[in-house]
Design a protein that fits this description.
The record marks 79 as: Transition state stabilizer. Its EC number is 1.11.1.7. Residues 42-347 form the Plant heme peroxidase family profile domain. The chain is 43% helix and 3% strand. Helix 1 runs antiparallel to helix 9 (242-251), helix 3 crosses helix 5 and helix 4 crosses helix 5. It folds into two domains: 10-29 and 184-322, Peroxidase, domain 2 (Orthogonal Bundle), CATH 1.10.420; 38-182 and 328-338, Orthogonal Bundle (Peroxidase, domain 1), CATH 1.10.520.10. With 347 residues, it is mostly helical. A two-stranded antiparallel ribbon has the order 1-4. The chain is globular, with a radius of gyration of 20 Å. It is built from 13 helices and four strands. It starts with 9 loop residues before the first helix and ends in a 9-residue tail after the last strand. Bound molecules: protoporphyrin IX containing FE (HEM). Protoporphyrin IX containing FE (HEM) binds at residues 72, 75-76, 78-79, 82, 115, 117, 183-185, 187, 192, 209-210, 212-213, 215-219, 222, 288, 290.
Amino acid sequence: MSVPSPFSSPFVFTCLLFIFLLTLSSSDCQPISTPAKRRPRQLSVSYYAKSCPQLEQLIGSITSQQFKEAPVSAPATIRLFFHDCFVEGCDASILIATNPGNKILAEKDAEDNKDLRTEGFDTITRAKTLVESKCPGVVSCADILAIAARDFVHLAGGPYYQVKKGRWDGKISKASRVPYNLPHANSTVDQLIKLFSSKGLTVQDLVVLSGAHTIGFARCKHFVARLYDYKGTMQPDPAIDPRLLKALKMSCPHAGGNADIVAPFDVTTPFLFDHAYYANLEGKLGLLASDQGLFLDPRTKPLVQSLGQDKAKFFQAFSAAMDKMGSIGVKRGRTHGEKRKVCSTHM
Ligand code: HEM
């Protein structure tokens, strides 16, 4: 008998969450460098002021509707933006579909992108359709993705920040460019620092942007090794709170579990964009080894502590870091860029 997917069944999904929250409350409770190192080309907040003045309202009408209908669109789109920016820059190359007649797989079909939720792609498709109907041929998919990600941060309770615009869409989308440009759940802090630095991002940016894991979910495969056989010890990771360990083991068996079962990143406020992520790390409640590692490493621990104490500081730093991430490898003009009419296909 097949077990229902948490993505298709809100019931299983809710039950899972309930198990987590109940368990916790019942006690006392080598990167390839993208052009980021080059000086980012100038983006501006008022880029579409004349050509599409109502742009942000148009996108906002879609994001708020999506958020009501499918709240997972928020984490889905924020992650989509991150995965876009880290591979070939923020140029909507992640949205390109593999051409069936072409042997070259597009970015979105790379192994590391296979678990990106459809809700993120759907949001951009809907927003693009509306924007094209009002401002045809003017607005890039890359800018729509950047604005939608910001909208969802805000809709989920996080900060509102101005998005600079003027990105063109990229002409290259290859799955082969993905593996060394994205971090993994078992990446060491050293590897994370190197990868982020190859994109022009600092250690502080790494810690601050990881705070996006204050909302959203991860599948068991990304953390199951921590539960049963941490680094080949045949023991759980000692840096997991025993109550969380117990709860996670109930959902994620050592082998043969349902590949679609997910656990929330933030066990305390899983749907709210707040700074609880950092306090959770201090309490050994980080979900991925890469999350918990930020509290264990002396280079990142003080940042985790300070962001955990000050929500306003996190919000301010997150807004600035998203702006910085949003400038990675930006393309301008026809030589390297295009303005797609449909985000999933080149012009
Ligand atoms: C620092 C290194 C990072 C690692 C190793 C990492 C890894 C992961 C993994 C393994 C998942 C779970 C995917 C799944 O099972 O569906 C995930 C989800 C997520 N990531 Fe990250 N991530 C990192 C940084 C970031 C950054 C910088 C952002 C955004 C600024 C981000 C935003 C998200 C969001 C919002 C989700 C939840 C997605 C959802 O529920 O659909 N992550 N990440």
